[in-house]
Sequence to fold (587 residues):
Amino acid sequence: MSGEVLLEARNIGKRFGGVQALKDVSLTIRAREIYGLIGPNGAGKTTFFNVMTGLYPRDGGEVLFGGVPLELGTPYLVAQAGIARTFQNIRLFGNMTAIENVMVGRHVRTHVGVFGAILRTPGQRAEEAAIRRRADELLHYVGISHRANDLARNLSYGDQRRLEIARALATEPQLLALDEPAAGMNATETVALRKLIEGLRADGLTVLLIEHDVKLVMGLCDRVAVLDYGEKIAEDVPGVVQKDPKVIEAYLGAGGD
Amino acid sequence: MEIFAQQIINGLTAGSVYALVALGYTMVYGIIQLINFAHGEVVMIGGMVALTVITTLVGMGLPLPPIVLVLAGIIAAIPICMAIGYLLERAAYRPLRHAPRLAPLITAIGMSIVLQQVALLIWGRDPKAFPQIMENQSFAIGGASITSVQIAIILMSVVIMAALTWFVYRTRFGIAIRATAEDVRVAALMGVDANRTIAATFVIGAGLAAVAGVMYGTYYGITHYTMGFMLGLKAFSAAVLGGIGNLAGAMLGGILLGLVEALGAGYIGEFTDLCRWPLVDGLLVERCANGGNVVLFGSNYQDVFAFMVLILVLVFRPSGLLGERVSERA
Fold:
C-alpha cells in the first residue's frame, strides 16, 4: 500500500469566529488506499471535509491533488479535479428521481449546453443517452436500480446513502470522500456498505472515510488519522493508532487508565 | 353563451402570453428566490424590437408574407432579450447573490426603471402601433369567433411550454438547473457550475419573454414603453397563483388568470348594471326605462381581477395551486 501520493493537505486551518476548528492539519492520502479520519465529536472531521471539498473557504494551508494545487474556493472545480463526496446528513435532491440525482453527477463530465439541447444535435442525443445509461449502471452498481424512478426523498435511509454514493461516483472521482456513511445504519446495512467500499477500492478508487463506527474504520482502513480539537494527534495503520496513548486519552478522557 | 365562449377564447389567448411571462418569473425564483421585477420590461423590449424590425421590413416594401415578418421580429427579439437577461443577472443580481434578500429585490425594481427609461429614449413616449400586416381571418366556433392571430398565439405557447418542459426534465442542462434550484451548494459539489446555470435560467426566461412580447404586440396591435409594468405584475400574479417556483404552476396560473380576467371583464358590466337588480326605484326607474343601463363597473375594470386573484391567493393559499413549500432554505 505504498502507492503514489494522491492528496496532500498542508497546514489546513479554519476558524469560525473565536473557535479554531482546524489547526495546521496536514495529511497525505495515497492512491488506492482507504484512509480513515476519526476523532471524538466536534474534533473537526467534517470541517476538514468541507474545506477540502471546497464547501468552506479555508483560512490557511493548501491542498495538492495529484501534485496540483486545488482551487478550494470553487466547489465545481474541486469536483472537476476528481474529488467527490457524500454528506453526513444526507443531502440528495429530494424532489428529483434517483436516476436524475445520479445524472446531476454526470454533468461535470459531459458537455452539451443549452443551445445544443435546444437544437437537438445528434451529439446531444448521443450524450443524453450515454448519461442515462451510465447513471443506470451506477444505480445498479450500488444496488438500487429498482428504485431508479422513485423520488429520492421516498427512498429508505440505507438506499439514500447508496444513492449519494452513486451520485458521487457519477462525477468519476479519483478520491471518494464519505462522511459518516454508516451513521444510522443497522448491522446488515453496515456489512453491505463495507463490501461496497472494498469493491470501490478494488475498482481503483481512493476512499477517504470519516466514521464514528471505530470498528468499521479499524477493520476497513489501510491508514487512519485521528483529529482532536482541530489537531491531528495520530496517523498510522489501525493497529498502531489503536494503541496510541494520545488517541486513547482523546476518546476516554485524561486520567483514564 | 356567446359572450362566455368568446371570453374563453380571449382568456386563453391572453393567458398564453401570461403563462410565458410567468415562466420567466418562476424559473428565476425557483433557482435563486429572487422576484425579478425587471422581467416585465424584458417583455416590453421584446415587443419593441419586433415592432422596429417589422416596421422596417414593411417600409422596405419587400413582398414578404406576414408570417415571415412576425418570425423575423421574434428572431430579432429573442437574442436581444436574452442578452439583456444575461446582463441583468451578471451586472445587477450576481454581485448581490449573498446579500440580504431585500437588496436584490430593490435592485430588480431599479433595473425595471432603468430598462423603461432606456426604452423611452430609444422608442419615445408615444404608444407605437404595429403595422397592420395580418389579414386577421376569423373562424366561427360555437357562436364565438377565433382569429388566426389568436390561434397562432395559443399554438405557439403550447409548443414552447412543451419544449421547455422537455428541456427541464429531460436534458443534462435542465437537470442541472433543477438540482441547483434544490440545493445550490450540493449541486456545485457535484460539479455543476452554479453561476453558469443561474445565468442560463435568466437567459431562457428572457427568451420566453421576447416571444411573449411579440405576441402581446401583435395581439393588441400596440407597444408602449410602460407596457411591461402591468403585464409583468399580472404575470407575477399568475406565477403566485400557480405556486411560484413551480413550472407547471406558472403555465396553469397564466391560463387561469387570463380566463378569470376575460370572464370578469366580459360579465362585470352585466352584473353591476343596477337596472338588473330588484332594488331599483326612484331616479333609477327613469334611467332604466326603455332598456337603459346604469353600469357601475365597466370592462375597463379588467385589471382589477388579476390583483384580486393575487390577494385571494396570498390570503388563502400562499403557496399557490401547485405550490411547493416556500422558502425552505434560509
In short: The two ends of chain A are 34 Å apart (CA to CA). Chain A has ten helices and ten strands. Chain A has two domains: 5-82+173-252, 93-156.
